[in-house]
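Record 1 of the preview.
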Amino acid sequence: GDEFAILLDDLDRAEDALEVSFRILKELRAPFHLNGHELFATASIGIALSGTGYERAEEVLRDADTAMYRSKAHTEKRPVVFDPTMHATAMVVLRLETDLRRAVERHEFELFYQPIVALKSGALWGFEALVRWRHPERGLVYPTEFLPLAEETGLILHIGQWVLREACRQTRDWQDRFPRRRHLGVSVNVAGQQLAHGGFVDRVDEVLGDTGLAPGSLRLEITEGVIMETPEATTAVLERLRERDVRLHIDDFGTGYSSLSHLHRFPVDTLKIDRSFVAGLDARGDNGEIVRTIVALAHSLNMEVLAEGVETRQQLVALKNLNCQYGQGFFFARPLERSAAEEWVARPVHC
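->
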């Protein structure tokens, strides 16, 4: 495929292997000419030294491969020399990947729900569905620990589809059992791989059809970074979703690298202000103008605004004064298990 091994012998110093590696990288940085096109390639190099005391060739290749993947993780793509701690780390990751694959097969995931509130009235607007892994030995595992690996291994496609289906099913169940909540909405995070994978819109159609949830009750959250990776292709998918009346949110707005000049092109209903901006509202107020600008920008484009990470009353008051429509955060509630979230659904509806 795209992996090659080079055996170097008669080296006097370990640094000699690094020197050869840098020479290889220099050669590979030169453009390749193919069918009239100029192409550029990058490379990641891992080095295993025989002085470590290997008994089999497979062990040398294994450790060089481990160091190579460590090199791939660096943005500078510099050569990396293997050390024993990398093997221990690789074993931990391998065990986690094995457990994660079993979790998909054994349905060990569950959803927590964080309330989203209309700031002026305090009324429940909906929930954000957040996945948790109920590990049989470790207990509750949070997404920051397993979602990056799920994306790296492609398991995010299975997990994401389950989250979408379960969130829609549960929301429709609440709508049926609590008629006053017939407009209750649910927000679901969508990974870049899900959008890029063919047939995502068809899978959304299938889930909505199977669960009976109205498209307008589903809110898909996509980070601005994901949108800007392939803006044309992603926008085409979002347009098809919006045609179905599925609501679309840009998550963590203000932390990525989207161009404000392009924002009006995206078929988005809501901007979600990142918690880092909200956190500064009750300190010296340095973020007040940033939040005010985001709110004004959204309203000028006929979008709504949702602030995440609301933790204090001062932040709540500031957001209301800035005409931010919706909020979520620990001030209202932490992510809740299904039964606790249902207590919110059962509360009297007020405006």
